[in-house]
Amino acid sequence: xxxxxxxxxxxxxxxxxxxxxxxxxxxxxxxxxxxxxxxxxxxxxxxxxxxxxxxxxxxxxxxxxxxxxxxxxxxxxxxxxxxxxxxxxxxxxxxxxxxxxxxxxxxxxxxxxxxxxxxxxxxxxxxxxxxxxxxxxxxxxxxxxxxxxxxxxxxxxxxxxxxxxxxxxxxxxxxxxxxxxxxxxxxxxxxxxxxxxxxxxxxxxxxxxxxxxxxxxxxxxxxxxxxxxxxxxxxxxxxxxxxxxxxxxxxxxxxxxxxxxxxxxxxxxxxxxxxxxxxxxxxxxxxxxxxxxxxxxxxxxxxxxxxxxxxxxxxxxxx
Length: 319
Fold this sequence. Notes:
By secondary structure, the chain is α/β, with parallel strands linked by helices. It has 9 helices and 9 strands. It has a single domain, classed as 3-Layer(aba) Sandwich (Rossmann fold), CATH 3.40.50.720.
């Protein structure tokens, strides 16, 4: 399941697959092990990237606001920002983590316009101020990607206050950011893309707050698609199952039998028995945000290797 490729160092994110480049590659996975525990996934390819025939997604100079986009390097939000920059868009990083300053500077060092607005997404007044700062600089918003989210494990042993805090971060922030950006999205007819989770559809156990919030995200996606269709605003949700990110790696590393757990998880992913890469998620985001998907709205798009929908007969048989 994990091919041994000795000439490709494991666990390296120094040169991640570029946007859309991943679509032309034969992807594989290996685990880097440290004292019996997986410390990283390495995604490798066996073909030369075909980058000369890429279609123009038309995102150049579009101001795209992305919440939750100052996570660790290699996180889904950070990868989306990087891909937007590669497509010539103007990524706006909205996140409470000051790491966003580094990402903003990196964009500028590459000659890419971008902005970081430090924002606590549980504070409505900060969200409103963030939108005003964005509009003050660019005069417009051409698209919105609600990505912030933490699977916080709020459950039966948590307090009511903890549960409500989970909802504030994981779904109320989507409403507030969209509400504040909406006047400008009406002007631009800019799309809205919400990042969802399979937890809303399959459950997970032990995470009631996150499950409720992500269920709400899907409901809001359909509601907003109906409500905003008169303004020609498309609203969709992208649903993720198992994606190898730095946060996921940290969780695996924290487990006593992390490698066994990881092996059991990837065995349940039908397509290639591997996790979805952040680049693959970002690639789909680029398409949905672009005018190439101009007649797609109200949809739940799954980038999950068949995890949610495909026949369970594809899974390994227990002995």
